[in-house]
Every structure is written in C-alpha cells, then in structure tokens.
Amino acid sequence: xxxxxxxxxxxxxxxxxPARDLSRGFSSVVSAIRPAVVSVYSEKMVNTGxxxxxxxxxxxxDLFEQFFGRNFQRPQSQSPSGRGREGSGIPQRGMGSGMxxxxxxxxxxxxxxxxxxxxxxxxxxxxxxxxxxLVGSDPMSDIAIIKIKGKVPENLPVVRIGDSSKLQVGDWxxxxxxxxxxxxxxxxxxxxxxxxxxxxxxxxxxxxxxDAAINPGNSGGPLVNMDGEVIGMNTAIATxxxxxxxxxxxxxxxxxxxxxxxxxxxSSVVRGFLGVVxxxxxDPLAKQFHLPDKRGALVAQVNSGxxxxxxxxxxxxxxxxxxxxxxxxxxxxxxxxxxxxxxxxVTMGVRxxxxxxxxxxxxxxxxGKPQVATKxxxxxxxxxxxxxxxxxxxxxxxxxxxxxMEGLIITEVAPGSPAALASLQEGxxxxxxxxxxxKTVQDLRDAMTGADxxxxxxxxxxxxxxxxxxxxx
Length: 473
Description:
single chain, alpha+beta, Thrombin, subunit H, Pdz3 Domain, 4 domains, six-stranded antiparallel beta barrel, 10 helices, 17% helix
C-alpha cells in the first residue's frame, strides 16, 4: 500500500526486562517514601535600615548560601511589609525539605533550613499545611528537629531509617525534596564516595557524596537506598553556578541517629572530648617517624589535665586504634571521639617510637561555648509574654552556678513585656511551673495553654529562689 508507514521493531522483551525491573524498583521505593517527605517553609522579618536587600544575607557571602542551602526568595517590593522586633522590615523567605520521624510529628531537617527564623511551616505530600516549631538543633553538624504545632494529624506516615555504614560506592540511591520549590521531586543516582571531609561546610563532616541531582530546596530531604530506607540527609553541593553540577553531599543518617535522642528532647548535643591536637600523616612525616604507611593520627599536642593527658598520651604518639577499631586518619578519630558519650571508658592503640601499646582513657565532655539547642518562634506562646528560654546544659549549669539542677535558662526578656513586668531576668533558671518540675520547653508551653490567670514559676537566681506569677494574657 502506497504511503504505508514503516514502524521500527520493538526491542526484545528479554533484553529490556532488566531495565523494566529497575524502573519498577524505583517506583516502588518512591511510593513508599514520598508520603513521609515534607516541604519546609521559613520566614524571617529583616530590618533593612534603608539599605538594599540581598536574599543571601549581608554581602551574600554566607557559606551555606554559597553551597545553595537556603534558596531565599527576593520579595517583589523593597518597601517594608511587616514589623520585626526592631521595627519595620521585609519578610525573608526560605524553603527546604524534611522527613517525618514519628507519629508525634517530629521532622528531621537541616539546621541551615530553619536557623534564625521567626516562622516555620510544613507542607505534607497531600498538600496539607501546618505550622511548625524548632525543637532542637546542632549547628556543628547542621542537624535540626522541628515539630508540627498543635494537633498532629492522625496516621502520619513516617520514614524508615537505614544504616549508612553499609553503603558501598556504586549503590543506587534516590533523592527526594523540593528543588526550586518543585515539591516531591525525585532524582536518581549512585553513591559516588563516602567519608568526604575537609569541605569547609560543617564542623563535623563525614559526607556521603552522590551524583543524584540536588538543588536549592533539597536541603533536609532524604537520600534513600533501594530498600526504601533513609541513609542520608541531603545538605550541600559543590558548584560554581549555584546549581547542581554532579557533586552532592548528604549527612550520613547514622550521624543524625547519634544526636536524635538529645535533639528530640530539646537538649544540646554533648560530644566526647580527648584533649589533643592531631594531624594527618604525610609521606615526609611517615618517613621521619619510621612508619610503614600513613594510617593513623599523629598527636601534635596534649592539653594539660585533659583525658588524653590523664591517660598518658604524649606528643609524637600515633593513635592507630580507637576501641579496637583501626584509625585511618584524623577525620575518623575526631568523628569517633565526638560521638562517644562523655564518661565512657575506651581503649586506644598507640604507636610510640618503635613499639605499640594500649592506653585506657575516659572520654571527657567537649568544652566551649554552649550551644542553645532550643529556640521558640514568634507564634510559640512564649514570644507573646516576651520570653526566650533554652534547656539547661551541663556547660551552662557550671557557668551560671546551677550544677546538679534541671530547668529552663532564660536567654532573653523583652523590655515592657509580661515577663519583664514579672521581674524575670536573663540568666534566671525556671525550675518549676505550677508546682511541677520543669524540664523542657514543651512543659512550659503546655502549662501556659489556657492559663488565663497566668502560671506560677519557681525561679532560681544565683543563690536565691523566688516564686513568680507570669501573666499569659
């Protein structure tokens, strides 16, 4: 028949079957995980002071924003559109992703997605939206926990957590999030590398590298294996354009799991401390120390009175094992020590000169300025009384003279607020509310809900205690 079309032959089913099986595998994983992935929206009122507005902060040179983390949107108008705490300003908006951890509505995301913001909102996969609040955060690892405020919806889907230590380079993975605001976007790739560090992104780095496409808005979303388990949290990319260039980084889920117990309670992350300055072993150093290879961590300095000093560690020692686990480099040792609970007794394999020895050390607590792990947003019920609080940490307790106590430390009191009128002060420790011990911010918020006559607080101020009635309306 004239003009009859020539149809190309179909490929043999036996040839295409593996590709179809892989496609079905991807679809199955996506169907299982996507309902538990949320989009996270944030807003902060910024006082411009009459200056031009940069969507990436002063000078636009914030490190995480260089690595695309927050994807701020420039407002349509430069005129003030709201009131900040210091006067007029404009809303600075950001977007990221997160994953639902439990039926109580706790969501894991990146700290840089929700840091220093006034309002947080989450949108579920079915488009329902809920206000959320920051429960706990750890800036050093860029991990944060937020929670749906108010009544949590029933039958909330939750992610399945995997084991990132089982990852192998070449494994297939999927990244899910909201790149450029396109929520519930799925991309596929492989594990390109593990144990990436020295990126200058976080204080504690042990990144999974992937070539699954990650872009602005993916931060805080899950990296998932082919069993539908979360094995990482997408965090950053290496790029010169601000967009995906084939190299993305995710925080291993095992690192997050180690910090979750504290963060879910609104407590600061407590890290182990050895008290040494260590360095990687170069070829020249290996030669000078008569080492067969470059494995291990070279001790350059031992701090006086530190756990390492008490254990007998000396400058020039090579730490080769930590609790019977071989130490390949300083990154591995630093990670293992920081993730060890203070007070834990461990063994260290040490090469000293031409001989090997084993030292017993009790891990200490990392010193330094305490991190405030709890921050209340503008709608939390505490801002309306002019109060900012944080869970008391051992470091703050020692600094303020509250050792052995529990409660909430007051970090800020707004002038002229109900908290100020009640004579509350920065540095006060609230130990009780309505005659009940106070341990978490949620305890205080629950007590304030519906308390038209105010709440009764027992406050510790230096060496004295006093009762205070805080009006809530």
